[in-house]
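Query structure, 175 tokens:
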């Protein structure tokens, strides 16, 4: 596994559970991250992010909670100062339906609780090595949901190659 110097990262942690905030803060400090901000309220977190952007966000996720609204706000290009910021979802709700729901809201990585320093580091490395394009559709803005090379597209690949990290599905026209 590659070793990265993470000391330059500015990380925002959003979790209503004070115990999990402490666990994440401690683990991130162990990894050398010193610029940490944490907040237990998703609305305050978004205001904090608008005032000072982060390089990476760790957010709690539970079906029906305000963190879903937070994820939508971050990924909204009209409201967010940086809708491309990587978001690592941390949750104990690891059922497949919840993973799919979080993915469809634009999360970058999904980290199952309980967490360890090693698992947090592995997910940060995954974010740093991520080269997926961002997709912009009517109802979705976020990292391309197709992750694995082993799952080829069936039929003709009509995706355009773009220089920028955004792919706008609405701008594509068929020949």
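Result returned for the query:
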């Amino acid at each position: 596994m590659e070793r990265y110097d993470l000391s330059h990262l500015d990380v925002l942690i959003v979790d209503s559970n004070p115990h999990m905030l402490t666990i994440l803060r401690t683990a991130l400090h162990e990894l050398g991250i010193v610029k940490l901000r944490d907040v237990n309220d998703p609305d305050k977190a978004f205001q904090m992010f608008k005032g000072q952007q982060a390089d990476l966000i760790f957010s709690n996720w539970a079906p029906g909670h305000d963190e879903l609204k937070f994820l939508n706000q971050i990924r909204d290009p009209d409201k967010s100062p940086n809708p491309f910021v990587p978001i690592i979802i941390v949750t104990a709700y690891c059922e497949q339906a919840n993973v799919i729901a979080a993915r469809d809201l634009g999360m970058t990585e999904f980290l199952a609780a309980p967490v360890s320093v090693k698992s947090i580091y592995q997910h940060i490395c995954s974010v740093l090595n991520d080269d997926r394009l961002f997709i912009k559709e009517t109802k979705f803005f976020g990292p391309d949901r197709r992750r694995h090379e082993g799952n080829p597209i069936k039929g003709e690949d009509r995706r355009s190659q773009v220089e920028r990290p955004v792919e706008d599905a609405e701008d594509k026209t068929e020949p």
